[in-house]
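User: I'll paste a sequence; please echo it back and then give the predicted structure.

Assistant: Echoing your sequence first, then the prediction.
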Amino acid sequence: MARQSANYPPELRERAVRMVAEVKADYPSEWAAIGAVAQKLGIGSSETLRKWIRQAEADGGGRPGVTSEEHAEIRRLKREVAELRRANEILKAASVFFAAELDRPYPRS
C-alpha cells in the first residue's frame, strides 16, 4: 500500500499526478508520460510516481483497492491491537505472579 513518503511533500505528489493526467495524451504510453514527469520534477523513480497515480485512482474510486483513509485506519487498528496484546501479556504475567503469592504458605510465628 502507499505510505506517505517523508521525502516528497503531499503538494508535489498531487502536482505530479495532475501533470501526468494532463500530458498523458502527448506521449505514446502512460509509462512514457510518467517517466517524463518524474524526470521534470526530480522524482527519484518513475515507479514511485506510478504508485502515487494508482493510489490517487483508488482514492477517487476509479480503481479497486484500499483508499488512503482505509489504509490509515487499518494501520491505526493494527497498532491498537498490538498495544492491547502487550497489555494482556502484562496482565497475564501479573495474575500468575499474584496467584503464586496467594498459594505460597506463610510461616506462622
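Residues 23 and 33 are 7 Å apart (CA to CA). The longest helix spans residues 68-103.
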